[in-house]
Amino acid sequence: MPDSGGRGCCRCCCSFIFTSGLTALFMWLSLRTTSPACALSKFSIPLDQTKNLTTLEFELRLKNTNKDKGVYYDPINVTFFDSPDRSRSIGSSIITKFYQGHKKKATKNGTISNISRDEVSRAAQGNGSKVFFWVDLATSVRYKILMFKTKRHKIRVGASVEVNGTISKVYPKDIKLKSNAGKIRSYCGKLGVFFANFLVLGLLSF
Q1: N or C: which end of the chain has fewer CB within 10 A?
Q2: Reported confidence tier of residue 67, pLDDT bands at 50, 70, 90
Q3: What residue segments make up the domains of the chain, in order of their start?
């Protein structure tokens, strides 16, 4: 006589594993986050020959690429260097913290005052035919998911900036600030991967 009770138990176990796996996978897809896109849209150091000190002017563009998650930015530290090897810092500027809604863009302007015009000019002249400066951006963000906030995730990105003879950004297009780090994965994402693997192994065992 067939063991109907055993088959029923197997069906229940398979159903439970399948449902748990799908639930975890849905959570992972819904709760995973991606880092904001950061770009430098303006960079200029006016060289007024009548003054020894000048001011660096810059503009950042920040985009929240998440479809349904807001971003809370901590104060953003923007540092500029006179070469890509970052041997000497020109100065730093702080952008105050703010909130950015999902799929929203923000433009932030900043200045760094009391920069030596002579030192900047010498650095530009001594770097060869093509002159590159460097911008470094560092901050931490929290993501708003429904009514909750995630823990802080550190972001540090940068890029080289080619300048012309007047020490302004050469190309009109935005310069993307990049990092070696990939997409940020939340603990829920790791949990989703675990249950997805558990689902596959469970089904293969029957």
Answers
A1: N
A2: confident
A3: 16-32+183-199, 35-182
